[in-house]
Amino acid sequence: MKKFGIMLLAVILVVLTLGPAGQSQAAVKTIVDPSVTYSYGVLTRDIRELAAKYPDIVEYKSIGRTLYGREIWAVGLGTGRATVFFNGSHHGREWLTTTLNMYMIEQYAAAYTEGRRFEGYDVRGILDKTKIWFVPMVNPDGVTLQQTGLKSFPASVHQALIRMNEGSRNFKRWKANAQGIDPNRQYDTNWANLVNNYYSPRWMGHKGTAPVTTLENKAMVTFTYEIDPEIAVSYHSAGRILFWNFRTPAVNYSRDKRLADIFTRFTGYRQVSPAFNSNGGGGYTDWFIQRLGRPAFTPEIGIKRGETHLPVSAFPEEWRRNKKIGLWIAEEGYALWAAKPQNRINPVSLFLDGKRVEGDPAAFNESGTTYVSYKPLLTSLGYKLAWDGTSKSVTANGPQGTFRFTLGKKEAELNGQTVTSNAAPRLHEGIGYIPVRLLTQAVGAPFSVDKDTGMVSIKSP
Ligand SMILES: [Zn+2]
């Protein structure tokens, strides 16, 4: 009895000690709840809520619609010009990867908005340089069939779906889309020679009758070329392994191997040997590596336990392993982007009425556009500046009237009239810049750019 009493006291003490820490964790209410079965409906609702809560940093759009009318959502996080791409749930039963994509978006968006670091990463600095695009659920029809079974599909296709499921009404092992085509065996890389193909629609393993025929795959290919990402990460489950090489050319080997080694260090996921994987193909990562010649990864999260989804209880540990991946990949993506000659920033000197304007740099040239630091220039020209942090816009009042422009937007406003520029005002290393053509048009000042040195001279009106 006494022993029991002491034990009970010990248990109470442990609960009291752990309690506050546990509570403070729970007190931070999140939109994305990783403890629920993450459905298409939950996804759609959460994306809208995140975009409403974090309008500065989160945007979303549909990149296509499935055969059964579900949107394939893309979510953009960040304001930068370099891009990287994350996606999840190519396979129906792997929807915990959607949770992972979504949780990542929310954690980073909150840190950005609150101006805090995340696991040592400078979230603002990183997301102002790189935009991370997510397609958290590539295959919403497959996910829905896996989660709810036949009831979410028209009765007219039930028999066909049961046939694709080899006579079973239990869809828990389902990987394909709702046409019985595997979206991760559809990309046009070694498609013709894929091994272990099933020649008719099936819950897994059927590559279709030609590459990139499904609406999901068409959307992904078109969107990839549209956003032009430097690196792609395609989350799957399960096995705690990492695919990183698909017949990677020798010239890219050390670049990609370095990233794979860091990926493994963060996640503990074992790298799949290139020799083994070279027989594959048809997957997003294979395609990205081959067609774009850029690094791509397929991490398989969680420990495999049978032909079904991971339990939601697997989430906290997989999140712990992956929580830095998005910011780290964004940083690496920026380095790759900035190293390209067309993206190189060339500082040039700037003169106003023959007097040198100070700045770090005062002006620079990038891909043929000359940008100038607007603050010292507009101030010298007699303008008063007001900054609106919510809309990221500047209102300048001065001799030529009111000039209003927004970071990241090519459309500006001059005395109530819209003026459009070929490039948008933007930040570089935390300083605001504007295309010289746009600024001089607004203030009515002639300018010239020296052909040889790139030096910019502006004359006040
Ligand atoms: Zn998969």
TrEMBL record:
Residues at the active site: 300 (proton donor/acceptor)
Pfam family, one: Peptidase_M14
Organism of derivation: Saccharibacillus kuerlensis
Boundaries of every Peptidase M14 domain copy: 36-333
Keyword line: Hydrolase, Metalloprotease, Protease, Signal, Zinc
Superkingdom per UniProt: Bacteria
PANTHER family: PROTEASE FAMILY M14 CARBOXYPEPTIDASE A,B (PTHR11705), SLL0236 PROTEIN (PTHR11705:SF143)
Requisite cofactors: Zn(2+)
Keyword Oxidoreductase: no
SMART domains (alphabetical): Zn_pept
Signal peptide annotation: 1-26
UniProt cross-references to InterPro entries, sorted A to Z: Cu_amine_oxidase-like_N, Mao_N_sf, Peptidase_M14
Protein family per UniProt: Belongs to the peptidase M14 family.
Protein name per its UniProtKB record: Peptidase M14 domain-containing protein
